[in-house]
Design goal:
By secondary structure, the protein is mainly beta. It has one helix and 30 strands. Strands 1-2 form a two-stranded antiparallel ribbon. It has a two-stranded antiparallel sheet with strand order 3-4. It starts with 8 loop residues before the first strand and ends with a strand.
Length: 278
């Protein structure tokens, strides 16, 4: 038996192969440590509850420790948490803000309910699933999809919702039809967006629906520039009403960048038709 003040604990000592006796004081210390540990855990949980006395029902403290948030399946309404009521053809979003629910694909929100999206003929649900888009070669008119029909000698081009009628090569759009282009002499077809559908050949200029030959003066050349009227003067010449006249360059001067006039060379400056030293 152990001495006074405790109870006996018998154990088998492998080294001495005999029964030994240990005093109860060591087990009593372990027991006290266990009780104190549980007391601290309970005290800590209680302090968290008292630290947030204003947390409403169906809510809990935020992970940051500041304020509170509603539990999953509830949304905040003022200082309380109310249960999310999901209508037919809807689903919970898991969010604690907003309504807490959204409509399934193919349905759209309407006054707290989910109404089925009415997809007309020749249309399909859009990517978001809350509306519809017309099929290729159909355009939207109200709640319907109307076919885009190309006239004879024409075709439909474009993308969903933005179709247009184009005419075949050699034809031009006139109202809702494609009319053959009539070429005047010395003209050719063009893919530029012109009302006539044709342009004059090089060396000719359009006038009154025909292509007139361009008369190029001496020291000039053909030009496609709009302001040139079909021709321009060579470098060192300038344009007049009758043709191209040579640029007269005074002493201490040189041709300008465009080649149709002159500038004084440094350190000279222009004074009327000559260059004088500054």
């Amino acid at each position: 038996m152990c001495g006074p003040g405790g109870f006996a604990v018998y154990a088998f000592d492998l080294r001495s192969r005999s029964t030994g006796c240990y005093r109860s004081q060591s087990l009593w210390s372990l027991f006290r440590f266990y009780v104190v540990g549980w007391f601290l855990v309970v005290l800590g949980c209680s302090s968290l509850a008292f630290a947030n006395p204003d947390i409403p029902l169906n809510a809990g403290p935020r992970p940051s420790g500041s304020g509170w948030e509603c539990n999953t399946g509830f949304i905040r309404s003022g200082a309380t948490c109310i249960e999310v009521v999901v209508p037919d053809n809807g689903h919970a979003t898991g969010r604690t803000s907003g309504s807490g629910w959204a409509c399934n694909r193919g349905y759209m929100r309407s006054e707290g309910t989910c109404e089925k999206v009415q997809v007309p003929e020749n249309a399909f649900l859009n990517a978001r699933g809350v509306g519809w888009t017309c099929e290729r070669h159909f355009r939207r008119e109200g709640d319907q999809c109307i076919a885009v029909v190309a006239p004879e000698n024409g075709f439909v081009t474009g993308t969903h919702g933005s179709y247009r009628i184009e005419c075949d090569w050699g034809f031009i759009r006139v109202s809702d039809s494609c009319t053959r282009i009539v070429l005047p002499e010395n003209a050719r077809l063009t893919d530029r967006r012109r009302e006539s559908g044709w342009v004059c050949l090089r060396g000719f200029r359009e006038g009154d629906g025909v292509c007139e030959p361009i008369s190029v003066p001496a020291n000039g050349f053909l030009s496609d520039s709009f302001a040139s009227r079909g021709w321009e003067c060579e470098r060192g010449f300038f344009r007049t009403d009758v043709g191209c006249e040579r640029v007269a360059i005074p002493e201490n001067a040189h041709l300008n960048r465009r080649g149709d006039g002159w500038d004084c060379s440094p350190p000279y400056r222009r004074q009327l038709s000559r260059c004088v030293r500054e």
